[in-house]
Write a structure and sequence with these properties.
Elements (H helix, E strand, L loop, with lengths): L3 H20 L4 H4 L2 H6 L1 H38 L2 E12 L27 E14 L3 E19 L2 E10 L2 E6 L4 E20 L6 E15 L5 E12 L9 E12 L1
Antiparallel strand pairs: 1-2, 1-9, 2-3, 3-4, 3-5, 4-6, 5-6, 6-7, 7-8, 8-9
Amino acid sequence: MLSERVRQALFTEIVNCSQTFHRNVHDKRCQIGSAWLTSGLFIRIIFIAVKILDVRIALKRTLVTLFCSLLLSGCGFAQAADFAVLAGGIFTTDKTPSAGVGTCTTSNPFCGQTIHTPARISYEGALAVRMLNAHIASLHFELPVVGTPTRTIEQGGFRQDYSTVFFTPGVRLKASLPFFSPFAAVGGGFARFSASSSGTSNPGSSTVAAFQVGGGFDLSTHIPLLGFRAEARVFHTGTPNFNVGQNQVFAGAGLVLRF
């Protein structure tokens, strides 16, 4: 493959020979190619060869540029996702239903007394992907799942054990500050209430709609891909088969992995 300097020297020599040929036919450099230079065939061949070389070089540069662009964009996408694992507690507001026949969803002789749900340990896993980056702030699509393996409803002498799972996809708005990134989140989905066989009665399981709002912050660590997160989410749900409170708050902290 001819270099740029060689091609320029070749063009210069051709032009010099062409001019010298008409002035001095005894020039040793031009005698050999005089017939070719006169007909212009040799010059055409050289131009075609140079054009082919130019196309190959341009194609090579284009492929290298495309590869680098894809590599950089892939790295950018890899840094735009995160997965968090948190542990904390879930708290449910007490509820006092109206007394009387037909006001409870289960057969409960203590119907009308305050329903109390003690706090329990809960866990959250949340996957998020960045959709928009404005440098000072970013918008993420997130898939949070909050689960509580064991919960209990207490109403007088009535007791029912159950578990809950909240799945509320939504968006998260996150500010980008040095070492500290506060965020706010909102989403909607469903809540699954699964009654345990242990308890005064077994009303069965039910799935209801759920809406959540929340907020928290991320802290950077000395490990580039690892961070710390603390957050709180408020869930508002429909009423399941057993008359549990509809407002529930999850507060927790844990680790976040950026990849």
